[in-house]
């Protein structure tokens, strides 16, 4: 499962972040107050990061070193967590971490603002964490709820 990007009203449609942002995001995500922070840090610092979107966001793929064995972050693919940070602007910086079927960190979707309509400013200063939301723990529970919701509608 990967996040997709829709470009609407972007100022910089061909803007890739500078490579030094890799270290910034490694450091930022290594400090989240979460029980898995050590496992996330290990994967980030032993992976090749690759920015992939030219819309002005800072989203990147995470390609872990295949010679290393990493702890599984969760038992299914999808959203691991979302972290929202206060910034020196009125808008927040959001980071969504995704893992693959093997439980390995594979993508970080990084965007700015409530509706993701603006490129991330070069002079952004990240402040405190506003919130952390975990991904779904039990995919079967979602399937059951969808089936039950559909049955309730009939």
Please characterize this protein's 3D structure.
The protein has 154 residues and is α+β, with helices and mostly antiparallel strands. It has one domain (21-153). The chain is built from 3 helices and 6 strands, in the order H-H-E-E-E-E-E-E-H. It has helices at residues 21-29, 37-45, 139-153; strands spanning 47-51, 60-64, 78-87, 93-99, 105-112, 126-134. The chain has a 6-stranded antiparallel β-sheet, with helices on one face. The longest helix has 15 residues, at 139-153. The chain is globular, with a radius of gyration of 17 Å.
Domains (count): 1
Order of helices and strands: HHEEEEEEH
Query: Care to count the β-strands?
Result: 6
The overall pLDDT, averaged over residues, is 82
Large-scale geometry: globular
Helix-strand category: alpha+beta
Q: What is the count of DSSP helices, taking H or I runs of 4+ residues?
A: 3
Low-pLDDT parts are: 146-154
Concise description?
With 154 residues, this protein is α+β, with helices and mostly antiparallel strands. It has one domain. It has 3 helices and 6 strands; from the N terminus they run ααββββββα.
Helix-strand blueprint:
Blueprint: H1 21-29, H2 37-45, E1 47-51, E2 60-64, E3 78-87, E4 93-99, E5 105-112, E6 126-134, H3 139-153
Antiparallel strand pairs: 1-2, 2-5, 3-4, 3-6, 4-5
Distinctive features:
disordered C terminus; 6 strands; single chain; globular; alpha+beta; 3 helices; 6-stranded antiparallel β-sheet; 154 residues
């Amino acid at each position: 499962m990967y996040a997709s990007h829709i470009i609407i009203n972007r100022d910089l449609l061909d803007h890739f972040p500078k490579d030094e942002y890799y270290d910034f995001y490694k450091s930022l995500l290594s400090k989240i107050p979460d029980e898995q922070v050590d496992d996330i840090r290990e994967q980030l610092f032993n992976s090749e990061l690759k920015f992939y979107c030219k819309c002005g966001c800072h989203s990147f793929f995470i390609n872990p070193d295949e010679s290393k064995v990493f702890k599984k972050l969760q038992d299914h693919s999808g959203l691991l967590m979302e972290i929202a940070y206060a910034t020196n602007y009125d808008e927040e910086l959001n980071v969504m971490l995704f893992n693959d079927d093997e439980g390995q960190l594979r993508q970080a979707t990084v965007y700015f603002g409530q509706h993701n309509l603006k490129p991330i400013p070069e002079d952004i200063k990240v402040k405190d964490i506003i919130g952390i939301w975990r991904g779904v723990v039990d995919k079967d529970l979602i399937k059951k709820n969808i089936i039950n919701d559909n049955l309730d509608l009939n």
